User: What shape does this take?
Amino acid sequence: MANRRYFGTDGVRGVVGEDLTPDLVERLGKAATLWAGGGRVLVGRDTRGSGPELEEALARGISSAGGTAVLAGVLPTPAVALLAEDLGAVVSASHNPPEYNGVKLFDGDGHKLSDEDEEAVEVLLDARGPGGGSIEHLEGAGERYLAHIVERFGSDLTGLRVGVDCANGAFSSLAPRAFAELGAEVTAIGTEPDGSNINVGFGATDLVALSHKVVTAGLDFGVAFDGDGDRVLAVDERGEV
Assistant: This one.
């Protein structure tokens, strides 16, 4: 663990412009792609305002290492793990406040990199890339993920009244639809991301709004995701966790 300078328990994270810069993210993209031996890297991001700039930086790094950056836009972390090609990368700081951002990496099987793998990636941060890569844009990744979840894990929710709190994050346009497609009557909150409100007063880090909504609207239960959609907490009809 002591050998890793940038990677923490869940990728590289920091305050944007301070410990997390576009230059570092570009170098990470290059290093991870060199480590993987090139190939196609699926890139998703959450709804932070800093996301597009850092997504571009990551793509430049991937391309400089001879890889193909496949940009899927706003996409929950589990979707990137599921749809990862040779590598998957998420520009996100998960449940952290909006001023943070970060990069999480997945191998081609959708698993997080081991500590040893992350050390190996860090060794390559200053290596030269061969260039010659490319950048593509992928449409409809969120729809593919939604269809997969409903088909594989869906239960009949007909007659249930469900509160869904999306933390103004990556699940804002997907999670309410998943519950609705399974027959639930959905009351959604935290679904209006503006780049600066992710995880603020909504989501798995703050259940007050969801608990209040469930109780006042007489819902059967509520679920709250965090900003990148890789954790969920639930409350019962009394608004209790």
Remarks:
- The mean pLDDT is 96.
- The helical segments are 22-36, 51-64, 77-83, 115-123, 141-153, 175-181, 208-217.
